[in-house]
Every structure is written in C-alpha cells, then in structure tokens.
Amino acid sequence: MKKHVYVSLVVLFALLLASCAPAAAPAAEAPAAEAPAAEAPAAAGEPAVCATDDYGCAKIEPGQTIKIGMGSPMTGGDSAFGIDAENSGKIAVADFGEFEGFQFELVAEDDTGTAEGGAAVANKFAADPTVVGVAGHLFSGASFAAAPIYEEVGIPMLSPSATNPDLTKQGFRVFNRVPFTDALQGKAAAEYMYNVLGFTKVAFLHDSQDYGKGLAEIAAAEFEALGGEVVELLGIVSKEADYSPVLSTIAAKDPEAVYFGGYTQDAGVITNNMKTTGLENAVFFGCDGTFGTDYLNRTAANGEGSYHATPRTPPDTPEKAAFDDAYMEAYGVGPGELSPFTWNSYDTTTALMEKVTEVAVLGGDGALYIPRGALVDAVRNLTNWTGISGTYTCPPVGDCNIEGPQFWVVENGEFVAVN
Predict the structure, then answer these.
(1) Domains and CATH numbers, the chain
(2) Measured CA distances, 302 to 80, 273, 338 (Å)
(3) What's the CA gap between 415 and 336, in Å, rounded?
(4) Position 43 pLDDT exceeds 80
(5) Between 286 and which of 13, 194, 290, 347 could a Cys-Cys bridge form, CB atoms 3.0 to 4.6 Å apart?
(6) Residue 323 — left, alpha, or beta (φ > 0 → left; ψ -120 to 50 → alpha)?
(7) What is the C-alpha radius of gyration for the chain, rounded to an integer number of angstroms?
C-alpha cells in the first residue's frame, strides 16, 4: 500500500514539472537549399580569349590610344640614331591610321643607348597597360637589359638595329630584329678588308659595349682566319675626348687600317686623332654604328677615305618613294642621313601595328582587347613580310634578316656605296 502511494506521488510530481516547463519552440523550417553559385563571369565585355591567353589581354578603353613604345638614345653624342628612329615611327603611325575607332601612338623614350637606360625605359613601358609592343630597342646593350622585363609581361620587341648575335640566343620569346647580325657584319667586313682592299695588318678597337665589343671580336677572328694579322684588339673608354695615347701605341705596330666597333661620337674622335698620332696613312674602317651625317660633321676632311656599313639599300618602290618624300618634307633631312636604320624603323613600327590588328578583339563594353601572348606569337611568326626596307621572316628565333651589309666609302664629304 505504501509502495503504491509513493509511486503515485512520483508520477504526480513529474506531471506537475512537465506542465510548468515552457513550451518547446517550434522546429525552424529547414532553409531552402541554396542554388549553386554561378561561376564569376568574365569582366564585362572581356572576350573569352583573355582568360586563356598566357599573358592575358591589354585593355584599351575608348578614348585611349594603342601605344607602340620605342627605346633609343635621344640625347648625347649618339642621339641621331634615336631621333631618326622616332621620325620614321611617327610617319608609320600617321600612315597606318585608326583601327576600330582607336588611334595608335608612338611613345619614344630616351634609353641613352645603355643597359641602365634600357632597363629603366622597359620598366616604364611594362607599367603602362596601354603599351602593347616596342619598336626597339635600338642598341644591343639596351636590348639585352630590356628583353627580360618585356618577357615577364608579354610585350613583343621588333628592333630595327640591335645586331649583337647573342640577343637571339637567350631564349627570349619576345625579342625579334630586322637588321643583319654582327656575325654577318663582322665576317663581311673582314672579307672586304682582306680580299678587296688587300689589308694584311689591322688593329681592332671597340667601345667596350655589347654591340661594339662583340662586333670587333667577330671581325678580328674572321680576319685572322683569312690569314690576316690582328696587331691589336682593344676596348676603349667610350665618350672620351681624346684617344691619342691608345692610337700612338697602335701606330708603332704599323697597321694598314683601324677597325672600330662602336658609334659616331667615338668614331669621330678616333678618326681625327689618327691624323696626329702616326696613323695618317691608315684607313679608318667603321660599321653600321659609325654611318651618318653626324660622323661626317665630326670629321670633315679627316673622314675622307673611311669605310662604313649599312643595311642593304631598300629597293625602289612607290611606297619607299612616298615615305622618302614625307620624311624630307617633315624633317628637312633625307632618310638614311641621320642613321642607316631609317627605313627599318618605319617597318618595325608598321609591322607591330599590323599584328595588333590581327589579334585584337573589340569587347562588348566598347574597349579594345589585345591578347598579349597571341601578339607575341604573331610578331615572332612574321613570314615573308614585306616593308619598304625589305622582306622579313622571323621564325624560329627572331632573326628576321639573312642579308649581309652594304659598305660605303667617304668621298668628297659624302658616302658612296662600294658593293
């Protein structure tokens, strides 16, 4: 009896507790399953090719220009090369006109022809998203320094004048050029001196820079291989005002010629010093870096009988005639006078613009998209491309020209072709 009462009291107490407890909150409805997030769309208006291009796309907004860069010496003793190249590039841009409502613009920067300057200009161009190609750099030292920077960001180079053979041996995807290489120039110069002029003893000088040093070393090796005697192979300190001590030492070795790899400023000083250091009967034999009115102005009568090199004279065509007239009218000096690369600079600028138009895509937002990797490949794959300076094929490594140089002698203050 007591046991039953105890159980009943426990049950009653449990019921009272249950009645006093707050009501359980109704179970929350399970949230509706979220729809899978849609893939992030490409930037508004951006073509699909930009997502697959290994460098992505340059985006040119409406109102912006498509920039072609140019790195060259614009100041100092070798500035004639840079001024000439810019002159030609500007005419090329004017001739090319617009594309899909966008204008091209040539942006020429002074790299002073040096490695330091080349790197500085390349970094500036690489930081500008509207620079899509570079018609340069002009000098080999600047090109060596600039190329790795452009390789990082996918800006193709098409140089009108950088001739050091090693530039196309570095594996650069972006570097291309239209001049002959110094391997061709050095060999041709050695053969001309030995076989045509009959020289057997020659001193070889250079400006200690990538272009001049490489060229002089090649020419000396080729001359020696022919049976000639290299009485000196020496680098000078570039941009000095007097090389008489060096030349006096060379004079004691009685060379028939002094070959020089470098540019017009140093070439002028050497030529003038030769007349007062016992080398007045030796011939100054220069290169494509010593050709131009700047050399003639620096040497006057002392330059008579000197030899120089240039790319082959372009064939006479209506296009070349029109360009020549436009150049003279715009600048008051003839093409090929400031430097031997006038026509090359026009062609490199034109070829870059042409390849831009082949790969560019107009986006739905009105912007122009230029796939950088596709442009790099398009420039490298230039094949049988004909400009006013010649016909060029760039694969596989970017050496687009297989022709050797043309040589000139100074007679009566003018350059006269001899081959």
Answers:
(1) 46-179+341-380 (3.40.50.2300), 182-311+405-417 (3.40.50.2300)
(2) 20, 9, 19
(3) 11
(4) no
(5) 290
(6) alpha
(7) 34
pLDDT tens per residue across span 178-222: 999 999 999 999 999 999 999 999 999 999 999 999 999 999 999
Name the pTM for this structure: 0.86
402 phi/psi in degrees, rounded to 5: -115, 5
**What amino acid occupies position 268?**
G
Residue 157, Cβ density class (10 Å: 0-12 exposed, 13-18 middle, ≥19 buried):
buried
Structure tokens at 135: 């018609």
Contact present, 293 and 320 (Cβ < 8 Å): no
Position 21 scores a pLDDT of 38
- Rounded to whole angstroms, the Cα distance separating 263 from 388 reads 25
Instruction: State how far the Cα of 55 lies from the Cα of 396, in Å rounded to an integer.
Output: 20
What are 372's two structure tokens?
């950088």
**In angstroms, what CA-CA distances link 391 with 33, 310, 344, 364, 403?**
65, 16, 11, 37, 10
In angstroms, the CA 89 to CA 105 distance is 9
Q: How far apart are CA 48 and CA 219, in angstroms?
A: 51
Q: Which two tokens stand for residue 336?
A: 């090929």
Residue closest to 73 by CA, chosen among 110, 107, 106? 110
Distance of CA 290 to the CA centre of its chain: 20
What value does the mean pLDDT take over residues 251-264? Answer: 98
- Look at the block and give the residue holding tokens 């870059």: 352
Residue 281 burial by CB count (10 A; 0-12/13-18/19+): exposed, middle or buried?
A: exposed
